[in-house]
Design brief:
This protein has 239 residues and is α/β, with parallel strands linked by helices. It has one domain: LmbE-like (Rossmann fold). The protein is 40% helix and 16% strand. The chain has an 8-stranded mixed β-sheet, with helices on both faces.
Length: 239
């Protein structure tokens, strides 16, 4: 199957993921490309990744991973990093609270495009593995919230808060989805993407280091790039 390039005739992107470091598995390289073009990017995270380091207390983990995400975002040119409140790492639930919080953020930022990570059962080009529960829950809620954000009569309390409906999201991009039919050329931005990955130093040190992950991501991006005739590419599902 031949992947098609993602349209880039838009200005504002809101990236929404579950945990610090999720975006750095390819998505941050796309953000680096787009901010270099002059586009605006904001990062929104559902949790602070407080359950991510087994040897560290959740409050300390959250503090460190928040700071690492902020440093990572600065590397790729994101203008802001925000975190939802009241949603726990490892325990995200697809319900009205999550949809409302995401719809609120979409109405506030009024993006043209929303970027998230794969919420399907697996990943592009990977025959094995099972996606994290938080990823699956968050991704479906993102797609639902994009619709919710445009409907005045869904979560009418958001209008009372001053958040008028926003139906201007042209599409949602799902990075590394097994249903990908589009790609983002990250040939000129992958180095900034890898630098943003390395910003999560404490987290990856607890997992044994980032070198293996970086090698895996470079190899995967090169393989997808070979499919479409560029050096490195991120496969995406366009909804």
């Amino acid at each position: 199957m031949t992947l098609e390039p993602v349209p880039e005739d838009w200005d504002r992107c809101l990236s929404i993921v579950a945990h610090p470091d999720d975006l750095e598995y390819g998505g941050s390289s796309a953000l680096a490309r787009w901010t270099a073009q002059g586009k605006t990017a904001v990062e929104l995270l559902a949790t602070r990744g407080e359950a991510g380091i087994a040897t560290m207390e959740p409050d300390e983990t959250a503090r460190i991973r928040t700071a690492e995400q902020e440093a990572s975002a600065a590397i790729v040119g994101a203008e802001a990093v925000e975190f939802l409140h009241g949603h726990r790492d490892g325990m995200l639930e697809h319900g009205l609270d999550l949809r409302r919080d995401l719809a609120r953020a979409i109405r506030r930022h009024r993006p043209d495009v929303v970027l998230t990570s794969s919420f399907r059962e697996g990943f592009y080009g990977s025959p094995a593995g099972w996606n994290h529960s938080d990823h699956r829950v968050l991704g479906e809620a993102v797609v639902d919230a994009v619709r919710d954000a445009g409907n005045r009569w869904v979560f009418p309390e958001l209008v009372d808060e001053g958040h008028e409906p926003w139906d201007g999201v042209r599409f949602v991009l799902v990075g590394s989805s097994p249903l990908s039919k589009h790609f983002v050329d990250i040939s000129d931005s992958i180095e900034r993407g890898m630098e943003s990955l390395r910003a999560h130093a404490v987290y990856f040190d607890a997992l044994g280091g980032s070198a293996e992950t970086e090698s895996f991501l470079r190899r995967g991006a090169a393989e997808v790039g070979a499919e479409v005739g560029v050096a490195h590419a991120l496969p995406v599902e366009l909804i």
